[in-house]
Amino acid sequence: MAGAGLGETNQIVLEENKALREEIDSLNRELKKSERELRVTKSFLDKVTKAADAKDAINTALSDSNLKQRAYTDMLLQSCPNIIILFDADGRFVLSTEALLAATNTPTFGYIKDRKYEEVFPKYFSPEGMKKFDEAFKKANSSSETIQFDALIDFDQSGKSRFFTFELSRAGNALEKESPMHGVLAVLVDLTDFMYEKQRAEAANNAKSDFLASMSHEIRTPLNAIIGMGEMLSRSELADEQKKYVTDIRKSSDSLLSIVNDILDFSKIEAGKMELVNTNYNLKMLLDNLHSIFSMLCQNKPIDIQFSIADDIPEILFGDETRLRQILTNLLSNAVKYTKQGRVIFTALCDVGFLQFEIRDTGIGIRREEQGRLFKPFEQLDAQKNRGVVGTGLGLAITNNLCRMMDGDLWFESEYGKGSVFYVRLPFKKAEHVEHDERPEPDGFTAPEAKILVVDDIEINLDVAEALLSAFEIVPDLAHSGREAIRLAKDIHYDIIFMDHMMPEMDGVETTKIIRELGGWNSKVPIIALTANAISGMEKTFLDNKLDGFLPKPLDLAALNLCLREWFLSE
Q: Residues 121, 172: one domain?
């Protein structure tokens, strides 16, 4: 019995040990599971910690970047010289450059931030300027269009407004009109100093023009006497030696007149006052005339001058004949002037709406290093070699500018020592409704019965006019002042009155006005201005003041002939 009890006890112990081992195994398994979960949890916590650290690092970096960006933005707003303002869609100030605060003496942007421009601007803007800004803001705010306008603004309230140009445009997404982030960007540029400089430059330019006009008058007055008297001397009985002296006087006078004309033309081009006067003209007659003139000039030089005119060159054109003649004359004159011997060949071609002229010479040519200066004013190339050549250095500068004014072009090719070729290409327009004047122009035109009055305050100018009119068997009455002219015009029915423009006490325009007021025949008598003031716009001035035309001084016998024929034969 005792042995049986011991066996049962051992059995129980074994079972309990087994259960205990199983429990230990279970605990070990739970422990390992917990360890795994702990490792996972630790790994997760490590990742969370790293993410948090990374987030902190990113936030720090973003904060630094934002601070830098803000610093750069502040730097831009402070250093920009122009006034730039960003408004929201309702017209409230969002941002502006420091220039606005400086202009308006505003301490900080906080004083105007979130305020509408209608509250801030009226004390600086005039009612008209405010209206312009309001209209521009509304238009820019509702479209993608950029609006520009100018206005006088008194930002410092000193009573001295400054000239600003405005540019307003929509800022933000231009395609989404309801976008909460859109607004209007306004850029204001102060052009006051620029405008003052422009006005000063214009005043200086006008002063120069006035000076040139005055100098033109002063130079042309004695030239009028020299050329006029020279013309009459050449028509008198002279010995061969005396004829040579008179010819030399005329050539020198013509050279001086050409220089004066070049200076005046260049000043008009420079001032933008050169105007093209388009009329119907005969191109073939113009070219024939140039051929005759330059053939005569080359008679006493070892130069063979040739003119080649294409058969399809149009005859009657509409354009500025005077300026075309000037262009071609300048180029032909240079070709003859700089060619000691050889050939000058002039060619005229027609090419689909364009005229092309070529002037080819076998002259001295132009050095390659000097070719870039050719069309610059007051430039004379190869001065050592061309010391004996008379000129201002303006001819080609004027010619180049005239070609461009006529929507054409001028260029050249040249080889030093062998010659040059100049090319002119100009658009042309054929004349419409051409009236052919078939009235004959008789040779030896005279008008001995004509009653002519010449008015001039300078005695020698009256002598010149009297001498030139004697070629037409006309004996004119002479008046030394406007008042004397009015007294004579009251009593005598003149056929033509030649009226000097610049006279003391009463000038030609004022004298003409009073003569017209006399009524009767004086309301219709042709009054022709005689002027040494050959600047742009004078013809319009004369016509607007009831004169019928003008003749430039120095008086030219051919021009006087045309004038007399125009008025006498038209009657």
A: yes
Does residue 425 contact residue 354 with C-beta atoms inside 8 Å?
A: yes
Distance in angstroms (rounded) separating the CA atoms of residues 372 and 539: 37
Q: Show which of 156, 190, 224 is a domain's final residue.
A: 190
DSSP 131-193: HHHHHHHHHHHTSS--EEEEEEE-TT-SS--EEEEEEEEEES-TT-TT-TT-EEEEEEEE-HH
**What pLDDT is attached to residue 175?**
44
Q: What digits encode the pLDDT tens for the residues 426-447? A: 999 888 765 544 444 445 678 8
How far apart (Å, rounded) are the C-alpha atoms in residues 307 and 291? 7
| DSSP 8-state symbol, 150 | E
Has residue 446 been placed in a domain?
A: no
**Helices 482-491/508-517 angle, 10° precision:** 20
Residues 349-362 have a mean pLDDT of 91
Q: Is 112 helix (H, G, I), strand (E, B) or coil?
A: coil
- What pLDDT does residue 439 have? 42
Same domain, 90 and 3: no
Span of 159-163, 198-202, 405-409 with lowest mean pLDDT: 198-202
| Tokens 């140039």 belong to residue | 290
Task: Give the Cα-Cα-Cα angle 367, 370, 375 (nearest 5 degrees).
Answer: 125
Strands, sheet with 303-309, edge to edge from the N-terminal-most edge strand = 303-309, 342-351, 354-361, 419-427, 409-415
Locate 411 and state its tokens.
Answer: 């260029």
Report the alpha-carbon distance of residue 511 to residue 524 in Å, rounded. Answer: 15
Query: Is pLDDT at 498 greater than 90 in this prediction?
Result: yes
Q: Which residues contact 78 (CB under 8 A, 6 or more apart)?
A: 97, 98
Cross-strand pairs, 348: 309, 357
Distance of CA 184 to the CA centre of its chain: 34
Query: What letter does residue 256 receive in the DSSP assignment?
Result: H
441 domain-assigned: no
The number of angstroms, rounded, from the C-alpha of 564 to the middle of its chain's C-alpha atoms is 40
Alpha helix ranges (H) inside 338-442: 395-405
Residues 251 and 300 in one domain: no
The CATH number that applies at residue 358 is 3.30.565.10
Same domain, 290 and 259: no
